[in-house]
Amino acid sequence: MVSLGCPKNRVDSEVMLGLLEDAGYQLTPEADQAEVLIVNTCGFIDAAKQESIDTILEMNQYRETGQLKALVMAGCLSQRYQQHLWDQLPEVDAMVGTGEFHRIVEAVEGALHGSRPGFWGEMPVSGMERPRRLTTPSYTAYLKIAEGCDHSCAFCAIPQMRGGYRSRPLADIVAEARRLVSQGVRELVLIAQDSTIWGHDLYGHPQLPRLLYALQEIPDLLFVRLMYSYPTQITPELVTAMRDLPVVAPYLDMPLQHAHPDLLKTMGRPFRREKTERVLNMVRDAIPDVTLRTTFIVGFPGETDEHFAALLDFIESMRFDHVGVFTYSPEEGTRAEPMGDPVPDEVKQKRRREAMLLQRRLVSSVRGRHIGRVMPIIIEETGTTVSVGRGPTDAPGIDGVTYVRGQFPVGTVVPARISGVKEYDLVAEPV
């Protein structure tokens, strides 16, 4: 399997691999040895779409150079462009959308027997006690707590591909978390299109703090990390749970997209800079050591130099630990599509570089506030004199790392005192 896109897609891939393994299929990391190849696609932006199509065409070459008998296309691109891709990609022997990836065994069986099946329904999120073959390191796993999205951001096509927001029941999530921890997982990364609204459709209002308290009861769990939070749902109750529960990492990922009120309104983001600053200050007052991650979009239709200057001012004044900046890509079917793409690409790229250079100038001093703190570091790479790991300040795959003096086995947790900063990374001494 080739899994593209976000961690939510990765969890779907792991479930598909688990289902196939349970059905008797032998998994191989070698594409030229596989009789069945699955590409779990991403359809979020144009570059991701092109990568997905290119990967499918690349994998199809193993019909000539490998053992390939069936090529299966899964994921967001399959869901979004069902019939069009079905007609345009004769190389594909079966197709599975995001709503029915649990039918992957049926799809593979059908593909191998020449029936060319396709599945695109909407999958229920309850009762998801399905097997998973983890593709992350043994000590880290993503835990999907909801599917779909109800927000109407003008730039985003996620609701077209994933449907409306559906929370997984509390019992399902906790049961899966316990299974993962029993297998050796020490860090659970909570993911959804909006993690902070979890439970509102099941219990009448968001209940993320309730979920965090339930996860706190799992023995041997080191970190629970919150990703994809939404500013309007960062409540005092949630912040109190983050502060008081030892298992919850002092880490909050909150994609903000912009800072200028005109752009936020056009983007369909239901909050303004003043409200966001109050939320961020509330979090920092309660949890002084909190790590804050965010992402921004530059080049959205109508963004002027004044709008961009406001964004730079916001980045400089709020001093985030981690910042990602993306250039706007128009997506068909979104509310922003009729606006066109008036900001030239060279302007978008220039603004992105300028924003990232600003964050690069700020990051050493921002990260420097951790010097002197003792943190638990999960070792990810071992060396003869220095090991590489991550603590509560860094999410897997997207943030920095911590260099710990000494040789430690991969997967062990080492208490270490932060002694220095190396741009985006930290340097530590074992305690």
UniProtKB/TrEMBL annotation:
Residue span, Radical SAM core domain: 135-367
EC number, UniProt record: 2.8.4.4
Subcellular localization: Cytoplasm
List of residues binding [4Fe-4S] cluster 2: C149, C153, C156
Residues engaged in binding [4Fe-4S] cluster 1: C6, C42, C76
GO molecular function, one term: protein methylthiotransferase activity
Segments forming domain TRAM: 368-431
GO cellular component, one term: cytosol
Assigned keywords, A-Z: 4Fe-4S, Cytoplasm, Iron, Iron-sulfur, Metal-binding, Ribonucleoprotein, Ribosomal protein, S-adenosyl-L-methionine, Transferase
InterPro entries on file: Elp3/MiaA/NifB-like_rSAM (IPR006638), Methylthiotransferase (IPR005839), Methylthiotransferase_CS (IPR020612), Methylthiotransferase_N (IPR013848), Methylthiotransferase_N_sf (IPR038135), NA-bd_OB-fold (IPR012340), Ribosomal_uS12_MeSTrfase_RimO (IPR005840), rSAM (IPR007197)
Transmembrane annotation, as ranges: none
Gene Ontology biological-process annotations: tRNA methylthiolation
Protein function: Catalyzes the methylthiolation of an aspartic acid residue of ribosomal protein uS12.
Protein name in UniProt: Ribosomal protein uS12 methylthiotransferase RimO
Gene that this polypeptide is encoded by: rimO
